[in-house]
Specification:
Helix content: under 10%
Number of domains: 1
GO molecular function, one term: chromatin binding
Number of helices: 4
InterPro entries: Swd2/WDR82, WD40/YVTN_repeat-like_dom_sf, WD40_repeat_dom_sf, WD40_rpt
Shape: globular
Pfam families: WD40
Radius of gyration: 20 Å
CATH topology: Methylamine Dehydrogenase, Chain H
Protein name: WD40-repeat-containing domain protein
Organism: Coniella lustricola
């Protein structure tokens, strides 16, 4: 592996690998317009934000990662009931927002970088709309009677979808506190908009299916993807449990169904056929899938299995690659690669790292992604590779 110019901090802080300190910034060192295929094999961990760098409590897990639309800001929601905002170009922590009264998870930027929504973890199951410049609430979205498991923002409008353990999916207009539509489904724990914003998908693990709905006609789904029927030949274990992520590729061609099992399912968004089973040689991360975490039966509090993940896998913005965290290393699959007779696809690239990556998000504008478990890590292409 080619070396990355960085400083090494010999303090371990409970992590096996050395800590990383950034020595270059995004804006002056890489071309954000470079094709992903030119840099995908050259990503290196470049900046590690240790808990003690930001706050006193070191025993914290990062619950979610999100980027704003311009790709300039990175935001995490964390188990110590804080929201952390980072400057991507400078590799710098910018702001800490507290939500001690209500708790916080699933923090998402709206289309305005100065406002966010997030789900509560205490008192009730409301979704909160917050202005980040002064940490003031704009609106509460109330109605769910169970923990929220997914929030997804419409790609072009101020609308969003929420899923909950109360077995409902609700559609919201950010300008009013009342939901605009509701679907009653069993275990609808994940949802995703397609890039056009005309349809959205809901994943129901207990039924082993993904339902596709027209945004303007919710009487019945326009199509139903039977994951059990389509995928049983590649992985029987993950067909109806352990679903961690649902995402459309930006080109609209594929749907990614992430699991915490032995691989992820890559599905054709038009025919609903299985395109590939993205096998993870070392298996999945230890985090719980949405809806199966700390308030689920049989889960021991304080263990990694008690903490929900918002997904350790995602598409690159061009739709060409899928990245996934694991208990070590970042796995990369080229969706254009030839699969085996069993439709299995092994990682095309393995980006070495000793830390578990339980949450992963790719920047929408730059060749840059972030991973996290207890610490947030920034990844950049090595310009010297």
């Amino acid at each position: 592996m080619a070396s990355t110019p960085m400083e090494l901090d010999t303090e371990q802080s409970g992590v096996d690998a050395p800590q990383l300190n950034i020595t270059r910034t995004l804006g002056s060192n890489i071309n954000p317009a470079s094709p992903v295929s030119d840099v995908i094999a050259n990503f290196r961990p470049t900046k590690l934000f240790k808990g003690e760098d930001i706050k006193e409590d070191k025993n914290v897990h990062i619950l979610s990662i999100d980027f704003d639309d311009p790709g300039e800001l990175c935001m995490t929601s964390e188990s110590d009931e804080t929201i952390q905002i980072f400057n991507v170009r400078e590799g710098r922590h910018d702001k800490t927002l507290l939500s001690k009264k209500y708790g916080v998870k699933l923090a998402k930027f709206t289309h305005a970088s100065s406002s966010i929504i997030y789900a509560s973890t205490k008192q009730n199951d409301a979704i909160r709309y917050l202005a980040t410049h002064d940490n003031s609430f704009i609106r509460y979205f109330e109605g769910h009677q169970g923990p929220v498991t997914c929030l997804t923002i419409h790609p072009g409008a101020d609308n969003f979808i929420s899923c909950s353990r109360d077995n409902t999916v609700r559609l919201w207009d950010i300008n009013t506190k009342f939901w605009t539509a509701q679907l009653n489904l069993r275990t609808p724990y994940l949802a995703a908009w397609d890039p056009s914003g005309k349809v959205f998908a809901v994943a129901s693990s207990s039924s082993g299916s993904i339902l596709i709905y027209d945004h303007h006609n919710l009487v019945k789904p326009v199509s139903v993807l039977d994951v059990v029927e389509k995928c049983h030949q590649v992985d029987t274990h993950s067909m109806m449990q352990g679903w961690t992520k649902l995402e459309f590729s930006n080109d609209g061609k594929h749907i990614l169904l992430g699991t915490n099992g032995k691989g992820h399912f890559l599905l054709d968004a038009f025919t609903c056929e299985l395109k590939a089973f993205l096998r993870k040689p070392e298996g999945g991360v230890r985090r719980a899938p949405p809806g199966e975490g700390s308030d689920a039966k049989g889960v021991t509090a304080g263990t990694p299995q008690a903490i929900d993940t918002t997904g350790e896998c995602c598409f690159t913005p061009d739709g060409r690659y899928v990245l996934s965290g694991s208990r070590k290393d970042i796995l990369v699959w080229d969706v254009l690669s030839q699969t085996s007779d069993k439709k299995e696809l092994l990682p095309t690239v393995v980006l070495e790292d000793k830390r578990e990556a339980a949450v992963l998000a790719y920047n929408p504008r730059f060749n840059f992604f972030s991973t996290a478990d207890q610490y947030l890590e920034f990844w950049l292409p090595d310009p010297h590779a």
